[in-house]
Amino acid sequence: MRKPIVVGNWKMNKTVEESKKFLVEFLTFSLNKGVDVVICAPYTSLGFLAENLRNKNVFIGAQNFHYESSGAFTGEISADMLAEQGVKYVIIGHSERRQYFAETDDTVNLKVKKALDSAITPIICVGETLEQRDNGETNSVIYTQITKGLKDISSDDITDIIIAYEPIWAIGTGKTASSKQANDVCSYIRKIISDIFGVEISNKIRIQYGGSVKPSNIKEIMEQSDIDGVLVGGASLVAEDFTQLVNF
Ligand code: PGA
Fold it and tell me: Ligand 1, closest atom to CA 96?
């Protein structure tokens, strides 16, 4: 049985002060213990959140990092720096990073390897544009992103990785993929994993859906056979909404 995982992606939202306000409210709710809960916050809030959520069964994630260990990379942050702040997860290859910050499948692959080396769980994002979907290219886009992103990853490491299917046209648009559309692609991702690593491993890896997930649609999404969790932007910013997602 794969343990469900609900991940909030705060993107470039919340100062430390605002993170504190979120936490005060969030800690008044009780959370479903059978679900892994992760908050991916801006760098400035990571240490504060990790410190205050220790022993609360909520883990902290980052939204990006550099694949090199150290050096002349002005403005970047390393995996070790994140780990030192208490970070346990990192989002890699989010479509916004691919679109605005020149992230490629090759840099995704380098980052996946570096995260694994640093004992940080990678959450690899893949997804097609609306144009690609309309042209019937969804599966080929996903295939390329997955196989390149996972290049040279061993079968020992693969089950430590989480894959998030996020159709770009559903992110922040209020347009959710239908649960069947989402599950079809998540099943296809599991099939790619099965072809590379075998069926047993493919049944262990966790695959999330992301894109306009909210309290009103979480139940139906989580009922799908190949969806093991969600990656949530907008609805993760409000403590009560995020709690409802965790307690789906
Ligand atoms: P959204 O974002 O939930 O606001 O659509 C999802 C994401 O970008 O991870």
Answer: 8
**Ligand 1 and 211: CB distance under 6 A:** yes
Catalytic annotation present for 94: yes
What are the distances in angstroms from CA 191 to CA 159, 188, 196, 207, 217? 14, 5, 9, 12, 25
Which is the catalytic residue, given 51, 137, 166, 200? 166
Q: Above 90 in pLDDT, residue 175?
A: no
**Residue 173: its pLDDT value, please?**
84
pTM over 0.90: yes
**Ligand 1 contact via 233 beta carbon (within 6 Å):** yes
Asked if 158 contacts 193 with a C-beta cutoff of 8 angstroms, the reply is yes
What are the DSSP calls for 211-235, one per residue?
SS--TTTHHHHHTSTT--EEEESGG
Q: Distances from the Cα of 163 to the Cαs of 112, 193, 241, 242, in angstroms?
A: 11, 11, 23, 20
Catalytic pick among 94, 96, 103, 128: 94
What is the bridge-based pairing of β-strands 121-126 and 87-92?
parallel
- Tell me, in angstroms, the distance from the centre of ligand 1 to residue 197's CA: 29
Residues 136-158 pLDDT 10s: 999 999 999 999 999 999 999 99
Distance from C-alpha of 106 to C-alpha of 150, rounded to nearest angstrom: 9
pLDDT at 1 exceeding the cut of 90? no
